[in-house]
Amino acid sequence: KAHAGFEPRWNSVAFRPYLLSPELEGAAPTPKIAHLEAKHGKPFNEMGSMIQLKERGLEFGLHYRFDPSDLASGTLDSHRVLRYVDTQGGPQAAFAYRRHLMKAFNEEGKA
Fold first, then answer.
1. What is the pLDDT of residue 19?
2. Domain of life here (predicted)?
3. What is the pLDDT, as a whole number, of residue 15?
4. Measuring CA to CA, how many Å separate 79 from each of 19, 24, 86?
């Protein structure tokens, strides 16, 4: 609901890339849950913030997935592709591609 219905004013939105997990850059994709456990230093089932994220996301139509088969990887190449899409198709095309990437990672478990 929240993200799906969001329509930015194209003359006022500026997206800035950042790396949540710079240690993943250049490395092979790794299991998402194992990565989160190593990063936070505790078992996934003790990470209240991740469990809360999943539960709260459902209230807004966001289906965060944390499956043992899900992978995490660096995002720098994704940022490069987004920048290219923006220069070729404009901010609306970049926003649509960003939605595609977020759905693939958060809902489909793809890295």
1. 83
2. Eukaryota
3. 66
4. 10, 14, 10
* Rounded-to-integer distance, Cα 55 and Cα 70, Å: 18
SS3 82: helix
| SS3 annotation, 44-72 | HHHCHHHHHHHHHHHHCCCCCCCCCCCEE
Domain range list for the chain: 29-106
pLDDT for res 9: 62
Q: Which residues of the chain have pLDDT under 70?
A: 1-15
Please give the Cα distance from 8 to 65 (Å, whole number).
26
31: part of which helix (H) or strand (E)? strand 30-31
